[in-house]
Amino acid sequence: MAPEHTRSGRRSQAWFGLDGKLGFVHRSKMYNQGYSASMFDGRPVIGIANSASDLAPCNAHLRQVADAVKRGVLMAGGVPFEFPTISLGETLMRPSAMQFRNLMAMDVEETLRANPLDGVVLLGGCDKTVPAQLMGALSADLPMVMVTGGPMLNGKFQGCDAGSGTHVWQFSEEVRAGRMSREDFAAAEACLSRSAGHCTTMGTASTMACLTEALGLSLPGSAAIPAVDAQRHRIAEQAGGRIVEMVAEGLVPSSVVDRRSFENAIRVNAAIGGSTNAVVHLLAIAGRAEVGVSLDDFDKLAADVPLLVDLLPSGRFLMEEFFHAGGLPAVIRELGELLHTGAATVTGRSLGENCAEAPNWRTDVVRPRAEPVHEAGGHTAVLRGNLAPDGAVIKVSAASEELVRHTGPALVFDTIEDYHAEVDAPDLPVDASTVLVVRGAGPAGYPGMPEIGNLAIPKKLLDAGVRDMVRITDGRMSGTSYGTVVLHVAPESARGGPLSLLRTGDRVTLDVPGRRIDMDVSESELRRRTAESELQGDAENPAPAGRGSGYEWLYRTHVRQADTGADFDFLVGRRGHAVPRRHL
Ligand code: FES
Ligand code: MG
């Protein structure tokens, strides 16, 4: 493309800088928006990839955030062009927003590559939108900064703070147990979402916003700013200015993120009590960046990191307090030498330099290392055993201490629908020692690896006061939930993982300290069951009806397993932003 860069060396000039018919066409049609010729004179062209959507309420306000980014781009001498991306509303999309993360990543990657852009500001917020945009942008490797949308203001209910997700799970169990009235439950519904923004707990959205910052891909301090705080718009404006500088510096994401950045993100995830979903997303993002990160890294690297941030679901507070405490820079400074402080960031300075002076105004929210919320080793444990040869994860800080070593009989459900149909039956064969298992919820099996892991406790046990049980699934769990739940079992049952051989009544042993998850079934019996299921074939044990065409087919056919991030096999890696051909 080099000869086409007629007026400057910028990528966008391969479109706007051309003379003759082609340059005419590229510029002329853009003039219909009222732009003047100087917009195309060689100044950096900055895309604003906006996932605002009325159907993704956590991202709806990104329209206003985009205006602030535009201001920053213009002030710095660039030209901003906003464009929409697919958006993924966690609460509305069926069968699971996760089924569309890779689709959104494809949209972002292809749109960046196909258009006359020199750099991009990514605007995301709700759970899957942030990893999807990062995955796409890292594969395209254009200069980029992410601006996340920020959390809502704290929910308020009956004089107390109430957190997104976490309190919903708690309230609905209270209603089932008869301790909360339906009227109060209905009243709570309107109290939890008080303003624009994403979930207020350290669920997946807040986690991914923090990890983006830890990776060095957003401006320091940006993750925790509430969506409606004026500071959110100021940092968006700054991001607009910074991306123009990054284009001039040629600072592409592949020179920002490396193995150190991902090690930092994994450690920060432990310190903030981040979502288990971050494991799947970071693995996928690392795959796009061509940085080697394995599932075991999440256990090994988190082993000496204490939980410092006292936020729901692992602790007490919500994102507004985290913001007032100083946000992620306070955590990064507190972690000190536990991080690679020399890792690069989009500011052009190192992570350590960005946070060297970061204050901590609320040591009850961001604890000093000497007084953590939870000692080191309390975060992600990666389990293996004859139930999960490729691994499974459990969030230790969300589990009950008395259950982290537990043996009990399995009660197995092939689908989440079966579970829902039977969970409240008075004669359900369970007691508190039962291990509840729901399979068929993996990436290919569901398809889309839904958040079904925090299975409701069976009604008869709930009535008897049981609040937690060992639960196992090849699906995921909402980042806002809690409980002794083994997640992301790989290989999943639908891909022939040993979870598919488990039967009701088999004894299952969870041993978190020993990092094991096993069924007490002999090798020979497992071989016999394998042979039997092969003999029975699909007729006796049909896979859930799946479409034989369309995106669902593509998803089921190409999705990888959870232990490598559930990306599509053909999307892993960096493809850059060169375009070999043009149509005119
Ligand atoms: Fe969008 Fe929680 S539902 S962030
Ligand atoms: Mg969520």
UniProtKB/TrEMBL annotation:
Region of interest: Disordered:
521-547
Q: Matching InterPro entries, A to Z?
A: Dihydro-acid_dehy_C, DiOHA_6PGluconate_deHydtase_CS, ILV_EDD_C, ILV_EDD_N, IlvD/EDD_N, Sugar_Degrad_Dehydratases
* Chain ranges of the Dihydroxy-acid/6-phosphogluconate dehydratase C-terminal domain: 364-566
Keyword Iron-sulfur in annotation? yes
Q: Where is the composition biased (Basic and acidic residues)?
A: 521-532
Keywords noted in UniProt: 2Fe-2S, Amino-acid biosynthesis, Branched-chain amino acid biosynthesis, Iron, Iron-sulfur, Lyase, Metal-binding
- Which regions form coiled coils? none
Q: List each copy of the Dihydroxy-acid/6-phosphogluconate dehydratase N-terminal domain by range.
A: 43-354
Matching Pfam families:
ILV_EDD_C, ILVD_EDD_N
- Keyword Amino-acid biosynthesis included in the entry's annotation: yes
The family assignment reads: Belongs to the IlvD/Edd family.
Query: What is the protein name for this chain?
Result: IlvD/Edd family dehydratase
- Per the UniProt entry, what species is this protein from, by scientific name? Prauserella alba
Lineage start: Bacteria, Bacillati, Actinomycetota, Actinomycetes, Pseudonocardiales
